[in-house]
Amino acid sequence: MFQLLGQVLQQQDSEIGMILNTLFSLAFIVYLFYAQKIQGMTMLRQIEVSLRKIKRYRDKGKNVAVEAIKDYGKPEQDPTPQVERFIEHFMIEPVSMDPAGVVQKLGSIMNVREFTFKQEVVRMAPEATESQRNNLENLLEASLVLNQFYKIIRHYYLMGKKTMNIYIIMQIHMILPMIIKQIEAYSAALQAFRDGIPIGDSVGPIVASKLLNGAPTKLVATEMMAGEIEFEGRRVIVTKAQGPGGSVGKPGDAIDFLVNREEGKVKMLITVDAAGKLEGEEVGEIAEGVGAAIGGPGVEKYKIEKAATENNVPLYAVAIKQGMEHVVAPLVEELMEATDKAVSSVKGLILDYSEEGDTIIVAGIGNTVGVGQ
C-alpha cells in the first residue's frame, strides 16, 4: 500500500514539474519577443509618476507667483492670465553660422528680454517697490523654467508612449533623476525670491559685501554698485549687483567701465562666483584659479575678458563649490561659512600677486537677492 502511494505521489510530482517547465518555457518565449515592450511600458509608468510630480511643482510655481503679485503689487485685476502668458515666454538665440558679432547680437536680444520682463512685472504689480519687482521678476523666471521642464518632459513622455520607441523612452528615463534635482531646486527658490532670502548663487555678492564692510557705494552700470576699500596698502574697488532685490546686474559693463576709468592703473581683476561641484566634493569648498568666473550665456563674460585683454589686466578667480540643488535654493549654512573662506582667499590672492600702491578690482558675481550693499 505504501509503495502504491509513493508511486502516485511521484507521478503527481512529475506532472507538476512538467507543467512548471512548460509555463517557464512559455514565459521565456513571451519575454524573448516582448521584453523590449515590457521594459518600455515599465519605464513609461515611472516617467508618468515623475511627470505628475513635476506638474505639481509647475502649478506651485504659478500659484506662488500669483499670490506674491497680489500681496506686493496690489493689482486691480486678477494677474493669473498675465502670469500664464509670462511663463510661456521664449527667447530665440541669434544665428551663429557667421560668428562675427554674435555676442553683441545675443546681448541685444537679452537686453530686450530683460526690458520686456521688467515692463511685464510693472504692469502686473504696479504698487511693488523696485526691490520687490526684482524679486517678482526672479520668481516669475523660476516659474517659467518649471513650466519649460514640465512641457519638455511631457513631450518626450507622450512621444515615447505614442511610438513605443524604446530609445526615446530610455533617454528621458535615464536623465530624469538629474532633471528632478534641478526642478526641486527651482521649486525651493520660489519662497526665497518671494521673501527676499539669499540663494546659493548669492555667495559672490555676499563676499563683495563682506569686503566692503559698509563702505559707501555708487552706481557704475545697470544695477551694479561699486565701492572702494584699502587693504594692506592696496586700493581695492569692489563691485556687485545692486541689492537687496534679486538681480545679477551687468558685471561686464561695470568692470569695463571701472578698468577704462582707471586708465591703466588696474593691476589685477578677481571674480568671485558660485561653481558646480563634482560628486565627492564638499559643499562650500573653495578653489582658486585664473580666468573670468561667471556663468550665463557668455555675454558678460565676453565683456570682462575683452576689458581685461585690451588693458593687459590679469584675471584671477575664486570659486565656491555647490551642487545644482543649491544654486537657486535658499542659502545653506555651509555656503554662508564658505563666504568667509572666500574673503580670505581673495585677500591672499591680492597679497600674493600685487604690490603696495596697486589698484585691484574684485567682482562678486551672482544674484544679489537678500544681499544689501
Question: In CATH, what is the class of the largest domain?
Answer: Alpha Beta
Mean pLDDT: 89
Integer count of domains: 2
Largest sheet: 7 strands, mixed
Low-confidence runs of at least 5 consecutive residues: none
Structure summary, number of beta strands = 7
Supply the CATH architecture of the largest domain. Answer: 3-Layer(aba) Sandwich
Order of helices and strands: HHHHHHEEEHEEHEHHE
User: With helices defined by DSSP (H or I, 4 residues minimum), what is the helix count?
Assistant: 10
Radius of gyration: 28 Å
For this structure, what is the CATH homologous superfamily of the largest domain?
Peptidyl-tRNA hydrolase
Instruction: Look at the helices and sheets and give the structural class.
Output: alpha/beta
Q: Looking at the structure, what is the overall shape?
A: globular
Can you give me a brief rundown of this structure?
With 373 residues, this protein is α/β, with parallel strands linked by helices. It has helices spanning 2-73, 80-86, 102-124, 130-163, 166-195, 203-212, 251-262, 299-310, 324-327, 333-353, and strands at residues 217-221, 224-231, 234-241, 266-276, 286-290, 315-322, 359-364.
Explain this structure.
- By secondary structure, the chain is an alpha/beta fold.
- The protein folds into two domains: 37-195; 200-364, 3-Layer(aba) Sandwich (Rossmann fold).
- It contains ten helices and seven strands.
- The chain is globular, with a radius of gyration of 28 Å.
- The relative contact order is 0.13.
- The mean pLDDT is 89.
